[in-house]
């Protein structure tokens, strides 16, 4: 009977580790595809689990210069966690390259 609490603690620890290092990104598609989600491994541990690109409005990616100051900070944070890029310009180029 002692093994049940140990297994529960192990399961809780596994969920916490997964929560810290796994994220779900919201991806906007066109009218045929709709909105989808993609799992990814975070580059830094974070309690945030759901992510969306702050520079993405519908199917368009807004240039960094046109974002407000708070949106630029959110975009930088998104890039650091999602892609491991601390420079928003490199992250923006990466995002535009992966668009179809």
Features:
100 residues; three-stranded mixed beta sheet
Describe this structure in words.
The protein starts with a helix and ends with a helix. The strands form two sheets. Strands 2-1-3 form a three-stranded mixed beta sheet. Strands 4-5 form a two-stranded antiparallel sheet. The protein has three helices and five strands, in the order αβββββαα. The protein is elongated, with a radius of gyration of 17 Å. It is 43% helix and 21% strand. A hairpin with a 6-residue loop joins β1 and β2 (35-41). It has 100 residues and is of the alpha+beta class. It has one domain (3-97).
Q: Which SSEs are present, and which pair or pack?
A:
Layout: H1 3-21, E1 22-28, E2 35-41, E3 50-52, E4 56-57, E5 60-61, H2 69-82, H3 88-97
Parallel strand pairs: 1-3
Antiparallel strand pairs: 1-2, 4-5
Short structural summary:
With 100 residues, this protein is α+β, with helices and mostly antiparallel strands. Helix content is 43%, strand content 21%.
Question: Which of globular, elongated, flat, extended, rod-shaped describes the shape?
Answer: elongated
The total strand number stands at: 5
How would you describe the oligomerization state of the chains in this entry?
Answer: single chain
Reading the helices and strands in chain order gives: HEEEEEHH
Largest sheet: 3 strands, mixed
Helix percentage range: 40-55%
**DSSP helical segment count:** 3
Structural class: alpha+beta
Which stretches of 5+ consecutive residues score pLDDT under 50? none
Q: Kindly give the count of domains.
A: 1
- Rounded to an integer in angstroms, the radius of gyration calculated over CA atoms is 17 Å
The average pLDDT value, as a whole number, equals: 85
Instruction: State the separation between the terminal residues, measured CA to CA.
Output: 55 Å
